[in-house]
Amino acid sequence: MKIIRSHAELLVYRASLPATSTVGFVPTMGGLHAGHTSLLTLSRRDNDISLASIFVNPAQFAPGEDFASYPRTEDADLSLCASHGADAVYLPRAEDVYPAGYETYVEAGCGGAARNARSEGASRPTFFRGVATVVLKLAVAARPHRLYVGQKDAQQCAVVRAVVRDVGLPLEVVVGETVREGDGLAMSTRNQYLTGAERSVAGGVWAALREGTAVWAKGERDAESVRGVVREKLADMRGKDANVEVLYVSLCDRESMREVEGTVEGGGKCVVCVAVMVGKARLIDNVVLE
């Protein structure tokens, strides 16, 4: 497995690949877990060449967020990449991605704070500008045929699809299923922040989403009623021995991320998204209403 540490080296590596080879690309911030390795497995299965990146992107963090403390586990991450078939891993320095004088950023409407008040875009106003910018820059340099992201970050999936579509990048966005712990907690690098007591209640996030899908399956089609069921179940987490704050419960169109009011359409067009602070861990999850 080749280790690439500069933009120039990445360009040389990409140019060296046979023109007929298909390239899969899995961008990550490191702290890899089974959710990431499931994407690496898909990339290996689908392509001649599988490329990953590890970059804790400073543009995705606002002041006061966890940029400094975000888990950085390079040796373990490289080992996981190698064991899941990556041919190369790109580990750029911040100055490679954002050189001195850098001032060009990308924003997708579906990630903006104005699009939906109950969303990551509203809760973290700078976040998706950083996501859209780094994904575009990495994709331009790596020139993959397929780019892999996880469904756990529903709005991020929408932002990546929008950037690829609107800029006209010649690649396919592949969304991998959310990988979960035994109690349903979506795997996330930030789960490492949970204490024992907090971890014991964190599975309540998925339990609340399942309550929402249960009433949906029984025929409920009023958006606020579905949101209300999820909020009520999330409230059950607060009475335990853990610091829990529900940040938002959203039921929105999975492409535009516009909040749905009134009757909800089925067929996988809408998604219920939640964000909950459990101690220092920001837990996000979602479920598609099929």
Automatic annotation (TrEMBL):
A biological process term (GO) from this entry: pantothenate biosynthetic process
Taxonomic superkingdom: Eukaryota
Pathway: Cofactor biosynthesis; (R)-pantothenate biosynthesis; (R)-pantothenate from (R)-pantoate and beta-alanine: step 1/1
GO MF term set: ATP binding; pantoate-beta-alanine ligase activity
Enzyme class per UniProt: ligase
Keywords of the record: ATP-binding, Ligase, Nucleotide-binding, Pantothenate biosynthesis
Catalysis: reaction(s): (R)-pantoate + beta-alanine + ATP = (R)-pantothenate + AMP + diphosphate + H(+)
Family to which this protein belongs: Belongs to the pantothenate synthetase family.
Full protein name: Pantoate--beta-alanine ligase
Organism, as annotated: Chondrus crispus (Carrageen Irish moss)
PANTHER family referenced in this protein's UniProt entry, alphabetically: CYTIDYLATE KINASE/PANTOATE-BETA-ALANINE LIGASE, PANTOATE--BETA-ALANINE LIGASE
The protein's Enzyme Commission number: 6.3.2.1
Pfam families attached to this UniProt entry: Pantoate_ligase
InterPro entries: Pantoate_ligase, Pantoate_ligase_C, Rossmann-like_a/b/a_fold
